[in-house]
């Protein structure tokens, strides 16, 4: 028997709070469905592993943006900066010194996280449009650096000549992308679990509070700037891992990893999937990748139009993206069944 | 020294050009608080209207310019009535996402309608040459821009910062309920302000294309510059936008001439630095 504390006592409050956190942290069915399907795709689409791997890496990148935009409310037009920093760190490391994939991953996360920590000191002081501007500036500056620093990054031609050694010294990256898929899947899944843990912690709750009402948070004893800076830094490090993963699995880096287009498309993917619930980032990335693929098959020049239209419709109808629609549909069906 | 002054002249002309496009954004985003990233799309529309009327129908340049303003105003009001209106009092991030979607659509739409190839842009002959005065030497068109821009700036500052119209808009943004209870029709007020902002965008676009060229990526290319001048200048301040436009134009032209390898760094570096010191911009009115 568990002792039941007296109602109203401090112990009871703590217990209620704990129960609340546990309930919030419960796995939702769409999360389980996504990960089961993602794992199953290895067997269902063996011919498309490279594409699926890239979509999942984009997913991690979108999840990193969700942490700071969906949860903390920091908009960014330059998140590709950290993705690119991670990619170039892993790439240059593998080209000039050490080709171990896990080392590259950690290095990518550290360097991107460090860059994020520095930038966060600027970004966390601002709000709204000014945040957007500064992140935009950071993104464009990083792009210019990579573009001009030819000897290091290969500039416009991209970075070539990465020597990736076998994973754990045993599994060589193959042309079908099998090892790349499994490697990326495991890394992304672990980081997803970590991100989940983070947003369901009191820290995650504080971020949501800041997003909803910045002025009230200091009254609860929460330092807004420090929390925002931490969220930004973690998000940057995650984006760096995503970039490093892409560099290692494709063994080539195009200058485009740092581009403004990438910063925008990651925003669009996040809105498509649904913000502020992590799995929406993964789903949005897959949906965006598939959609772009299909639309550009129909018409290579104007496919953007439909992507823009979808974005406008999602924002106008306030559906909360794919996860929002899914959840509402399921709720409605469940309610009907109950009746 | 003579060189420097001439480069400075080109920089000022470029700054005025930026202001012509950003002035409208200073109204819609700065004063009304609507984060309209699709402002450049309206400028592009103005540009294409000028090109179409001149190249296809043989209109004179000065006949086409007012049409650019009118066309952009009509398009702006159309979108404002159907879409933007519902987002005025909403969350700024929604506005950003919404208008980014519209930018994407207009870029693809312009490629569809006008093709990806930049059209030829003409201006009247008397604006094509150069003007000399002692060692001072400047393209006639640039001089025309500076004069025209100066007049327009004066009109805008007088019309928006010193009239009841401007005061009503600021009042509506600061305290909507109070303004409504004063008997001011906010809906119509905002529509009018948005029309003015859009007309300025179209006019700026029509004037800009001779110097900067026109193609479907125009809205994206100038989005950054437009946002920078409005945010750095300070939201809601026409004079701030003007100062930031001139500073940006001069820094960009002078920087590219004397230290070309630094390229875009100067602008973005200065932007980030200014926002660090003054988060509300140079002439901003404190926190929102």
Protein model, in words:
The complex is a heterodimer of chains A (339) and B (288). By secondary structure, chain A is mainly alpha-helical. Chain A has one domain (16-286). In chain A, 72% of the residues lie in helices and 0% in strands. In chain A, helix 2 (29-44) runs antiparallel to helix 8, helix 5 packs antiparallel against helix 10 and helix 12 (279-298) runs antiparallel to helix 13 (303-317). Chain A starts with 9 loop residues before the first helix and ends with a helix. Helix content of chain B is 73%, strand content 3%. Chain B has helices at 2-31, 39-57, 61-82, 92-114, 140-161, 164-174, 176-181, 186-212, 218-233, 238-258, 265-277; strands at residues 130-133, 136-139. In chain B, strands 1-2 form a two-stranded antiparallel ribbon. In chain B, strand 1 (130-133) and strand 2 form a beta hairpin. In chain B, helix 1 (2-31) runs antiparallel to helix 8 (186-212) and helix 1 (2-31) runs antiparallel to helix 10 (238-258). At the A-B interface, helix 6, helix 11 and helix 13 of A face helix 4, helix 9 and helix 11 of B.
Précis, in short:
The complex is a heterodimer of chains A (339) and B (288). With 339 residues, chain A is mainly alpha-helical.
Keywords:
heterodimer, A: about 350 residues, about 70% helix, about 0% strand, B: ABC transporter involved in vitamin B12 uptake, BtuC, two-stranded antiparallel sheet, 11 helices, 2 strands, globular
- The secondary-structure element order of chain B is HHHHEEHHHHHHH
Q: What is the count of DSSP helices of chain A, taking H or I runs of 4+ residues?
A: 14
Q: Which two chains share the most extensive interface?
A: A-B, 38 and 44 residues
Shape of chain A: globular
Counting helices, strands and paired strands, the structural category of chain A is mainly alpha
